[in-house]
Amino acid sequence: IKKIGVMTSGGDAPGMNAAIRSVVRTCAFHNIECYGIYRGYEGMIEGDFVKMNARSVKGIINKGGTVLKTARSKAFRTKAGRAKAFEKLKSEGIDAYVVIGGDGSFTGAMVFNEEYNFPVIGIPGTIDNDIYGTTHTLGYDTTLNTVVDAIDKIRDTASSHNRLFFIEVMGRDVGHIALNTGVGAGAEEILIPEEDLGLDRLLESLRRSKQSGKSSSIVVVAEGDKIGKNVFELADYVEENMTEYEVRVSVLGHMQRGGSPSCFDRVLASRMGVKAVESLLEGKSNYMVGLKNDVMDLTPLNKAIKGRSKINMELIRVSDIMTV
Ligand code: ATP
Predict the structure, then answer these.
(1) Cβ atoms of 142 and 321 closer than 8 Å
(2) Active site located where (predicted)?
(3) How far is the CA of 73 from the centre of ligand 1 (A)?
(4) Which of 136, 200, 225, 306 could join 191 via S-S bond, C-beta 3.0 to 4.6 A?
(5) 155 is an annotated ligand-binding site residue
(6) Signed CA dihedral, 158, 159, 163, 165: sign only
(7) ipTM of the complex
(8) Distance between CA atoms of 242 and 236, rounded to whole angstroms?
(9) Residue whose CA is closest, atom 18 of ligand 1?
(10) Which of 171, 70, 174, 127 is nearest to 268 (CA)?
């Protein structure tokens, strides 16, 4: 392997830049040429490549987003699109690549590998932490900190007005972000897709909390939760059935994806980049790098995609105890 490509694909996540930096510098360390591929598979198909060296990634470790941009590519889902991508990589002499993205990006990498036997290693970059084979995906820790900070601020206004706030957080169909930030910010209830609390129990719990002398309440709702049709309908239902509080909704939205990566994510990105490049140099392919028991580990891409990252059930109990 003489030339390695690096790209970000799918949704962006804080820490992607730190991972790009690590891939580029690990290549430089091993005297391997490194090419940035812009806009994920879209740029691969168009041959939108740029040669990078150790200095081209200066000053980005602390930046959110991704300097290589990211995209969702319809064309890469077609045989013709992937054939074009292969031609572009071949004509540039790129003979392996690192893809930083989520399960969709890994699926694309596997399909491409089956067709062209093109060496690839994945780095899990998504705030949702919904990938099997790593306890932490890149960006997850930063998002937890961003969300906890936002909830703290909302609590200031909630307690000044005796309000009940429903705060919707990201996480797609898993409850990692909701569960951890709910415990971290002291939410009264946490609604996650993995556990169906039921509307009656929610009301009962909120009444209990009011009776115990609380002046405000925070309910953290995972975007994938199924209890109400959506967080606004859920809030309406609670307001109709509970007159004790004024109810408000806050959907945190895309601010959860932005911002400077936490120290944890920067360190994780640096480790993952090194592991990804060195795995390619050892002749490995079709794996995702991940963190397990604080060591870097490899999981086959097909397992990473199919497996389910499980929430920590202990946290549900901890949350129940904390809201006594
Ligand atoms: P996130 O989880 O943050 O959304 P992701 O990597 O899962 O990130 P997707 O949009 O699902 O994001 O996938 C990224 C890209 O991977 C797609 O736009 C597409 O180009 C490619 N891809 C996904 N699935 C396939 C597939 N079955 N065949 C070929 N390419 C695919």
Answers:
(1) no
(2) 128 (proton acceptor)
(3) 7
(4) 225
(5) yes
(6) positive
(7) 0.96
(8) 10
(9) 72
(10) 127
Q: Using CB atoms within 10 A of its CB, is residue 19 exposed (0-12), middle (13-18) or buried (19+)?
A: buried
**H helical segments located in the chain:** 16-29, 40-46, 79-92, 103-116, 140-161, 176-184, 199-211, 231-241, 263-281, 301-306, 313-322
Task: Retrieve residue 192's tokens.
Answer: 């996650």
pTM here is 0.96
**CA 209/CA 205 separation, integer angstroms:** 6
Substitution candidate for ligand 1 out of 12, 105, 138 with most atoms within 8 A of CB:
105
Atom in ligand 1 nearest the alpha carbon of residue 112: 29
**Could you tell me the distance, in angstroms and rounded to a whole number, from the CA of residue 29 to the centre of ligand 1?**
30
Give the integer Cα–Cα distance in Å for 9 and 38.
9
Q: Are 297 and 314 a contacting pair, CB within 8 Å? A: no
Task: Determine the distance separating the centroid of ligand 1 and the alpha carbon of 170, expressed in angstroms.
Answer: 18
Residue 301 CA to residue 304 CA, distance in Å, equals 5
Q: Which two tokens stand for residue 54?
A: 């150790």
Ligand 1 interacting residues, C-beta cut-off 6 A? 9-11, 41, 72-73, 76-77, 101-105, 107-108, 111, 126
3-class DSSP state of 33: strand
Closest atom, ligand 1, to C-alpha of 11: 3
Describe the strand order of the beta sheet including 217-222 as a list of residue ranges. Answer: 189-191, 217-222, 163-169, 246-251
